[in-house]
Amino acid sequence: MHIHILGICGTFMGSLALLARARGHRVTGSDQNVYPPMSDQLAAAGIELIEGYDPAQLDPAPDLVVVGNALSRGNPAVEYLLDQGLPYTSGAQMLAEIVLPGRWVLAVAGTHGKTTTSSMLAWILEHAGLAPGYLIGGVPGNFGVSARLGETPFFVVEADEYDTAFFDKRSKFVHYRPRTAILNNLEFDHADIFADLGAIQTQFHHLIRTIPSQGRIILPAGEAALEATLDKGCWSEVERFAEGGAPGYRLERADGGAFTVLDGDREAGRVEWDLTGRHNVNNAMAALLAARHVGVTLADGAAALCEFQGVKRRMELRGEVAGVRVYDDFAHHPTAIATTLEGLRRKVGKERVLAVIEPRSNTMRLGRHRDALAASTADADRVIWYQPPGLDWSLEPVVADSPVPASVSRDLEELVATVAAESGPLHVVVMSNGGFGGVHEKLLTALRASHR
Fold it and tell me: Residue 122's domain is classified under what CATH number?
């Protein structure tokens, strides 16, 4: 079958293309911006890429057109496929129909931590010899690619609450029908499609309705928004974990770099790794319990996590020059900013931390989180906020309310020059859910030049 994907260079759609190609389908695709690393992954898999959305790409007609959720009415390719009556579907529906039938789906949902937790879970299953398939919204260090079919019934999927397509406004995860579901946390986000937290809870409850009675939901204890969602009705097994709980964990280092896994009144395993932050310990516990649901012991899972290599763009160390360490992090929500900086602070002690933050997400652009931004940076020593084009509100009030020294930059080259003048020891955490103009490499290049 010839499958053509509109919007193929997004992480989800590109990963889906790799899976469809692995199933033996001919896959082509297009996007407004065709660029690495996804374009490189797709080209290596023999997938033809087309720049732009000229309707000519749909003539002759493919057997199926998959429409990414970034496309809407008015797009020339979308209008052509509707006018011509071509068969079309969404990416989530295609995943459900072509890849997931007959699989034991382990879905990871929540406002924060989905990519990291999915990567942990896939690696635990791989380490145990279960050779899972997976589709993850990032590139796990232990695998090097964002998706694969796998060799067994087990399939790990990052279960996103964002809407499915212009013609299907349900969350993507409603299509996946998991047997094991992790619900990491739940906060208001995606203000471009959700009016309030209640609207997101409704979608999460749609997911809960699809989990079988012998399936299992795993969540941290005390998450009020998740508990309120479960109170709407739950028909599956529920397992909660907590620090010091049964099951749960005991921190051995304050930065989360070592912890003991607790199963009732016994110690089931110990994890020592390079990750930081209590949020990552919670992610790990959720992954361990999900893996236990398919037969992996907590001890074996803990041993696997000691070899976990993290995920690209999740506190990824991009380089070090003259004691200045530059990290790339995907954080784009006040809670994620705060927990990331807290974990780093606990790890580095009194060494200086500089946060460089681009408020780029749709919710940030709408200004829904601006009142919480200043406080989220309390564990940094200094913050540079980047005012990107298209952000229609000023970051100056955030700077005024900042608990630490802060400034606003509107010029990327000026920002780079400011940071390049620093010397170590210093930890520079660059936070954005986009490419941020390649600022990470620009910073490292400028630091090398200034410290020759």
Answer: 3.40.1190.10
115 a known binding residue?
yes
* Contact between residue 163 and residue 69 where contact means Cβ atoms under 8 Å apart: yes
Q: Is 260 annotated as contributing to ligand binding?
A: no
Predicted confidence at residue 363, as pLDDT, reads 63
Q: Is 286 helix (H, G, I), strand (E, B) or coil?
A: helix
Render pLDDT for 132-187 as a digit per residue (tens, 0 to 9): 999 998 889 899 888 999 999 999 999 998 899 999 999 999 999 999 999 998 98
pTM: predicted TM-score of the whole model, two decimal places: 0.86
Strand partners, 148: 134
Return d(Cα 290, Cα 218) in angstroms, integer: 7
Do the annotations mark residue 257 as ligand-binding?
A: no
DSSP class of residue 95? I
| CATH code: domain of residue 377 | 3.90.190.20
Quick one: 199 and 341 in the same domain?
no
Last residue of a domain, one of 91, 120, 146: 91
Instruction: Count CA within 13 A, CB hemisphere, residue 13.
Output: 29
The domain of 44 spans: 2-91
Q: What angle do CA 321, 323, 327 make, to 5 degrees?
A: 70
Same domain, 298 and 326: no
112 is in an annotated binding site: yes
pLDDT in tens, 350-391: 989 999 988 877 666 666 778 888 899 999 999 998 888 877
Question: According to the annotation, is 113 in a ligand binding site?
Answer: yes
In sequence order, what E strands does 48-172 have?
A: 48-51, 64-67, 88-90, 104-109, 133-135, 147-148, 154-158, 163-165, 168-171
Is 110 marked as binding a ligand?
yes
